[in-house]
Amino acid sequence: MKITSDPARVIELRDVVKTYAGRVPVHALQPVNLLVGKGESVAIVGPSGSGKSTLLNILGLLDTPTRGAYFLEGVDVTAADEVTRGAVRGQKFGFVFQSFHLLPHRTVAENVELAMMYARIPAVERRERTQNALETLGLIHRREADPRELSGGERQRTAIARAICLNPEVLFCDEPTGNLDSHNTGIVMDILADLHENGQTIVLVTHNLELAKLMRRTVSVRDGMVSERVNS
Ligand code: ADP
Prior knowledge:
Structural class: alpha/beta
Number of helices: 7
Low-confidence stretches: none
Helix content: 25-40%
Number of domains: 1
Bound molecules: adenosine-5'-diphosphate
Radius of gyration: 18 Å
Number of strands: 10
CATH class: Alpha Beta
Strand order of the largest sheet: 6-7-8-3-9-10
CATH superfamily: P-loop containing nucleotide triphosphate hydrolases
Mean pLDDT: 94
CATH architecture: 3-Layer(aba) Sandwich
């Protein structure tokens, strides 16, 4: 059978269920059907404990569904092994997650470049992309700083620079404005809005309803159940 890919259907979940095993199993996601099209931006919102991180981790291939199917660009990768999943994450996805820390004792520019080294992007190209990303994100004056010397907003922007330098098919963000003051929240919101305008596919989890409104669609999760609407 010939498998035809469909780049417009970047991620599709079909009847995805997630149950965490344990003495009392937790039904974190009820059957979810979700299509993320190329160039779309999706905000996942909902109360704490509702299943947002679970959904984000499954969409980012960081966790596997208990049941249901995951299609990447039209190809069923539900049963892919961890090596394949890791390769897909590296080639197609970018993550701005609190848990993916910046490296201390490395400069901002080195942090951004390192991710590209792992992706085997040639040195000249790496330097050019780093320069462009740091300029776009207003960090050029901080390029030689150690991440420990940065403000929360600068750190978040460095993490975004690191992710977008890899030109990911999908940019995943977990609470990108969490822990930021209102000034930096505004800056990060503008950056994400610009990325969306420029056709970047974005999936993010947020408590910030203003940020959610900047995305094309809002997916609400409540007790593991998903409903969605298109933002006007
Ligand atoms: P949110 O991101 O909306 O706060 P989560 O997706 O983290 O919600 O959690 C959804 C539900 O699944 C919660 O009841 C949570 O306690 C539970 N849960 C999350 N991760 C695990 C895990 N690794 N093992 C067991 N239960 C989990």
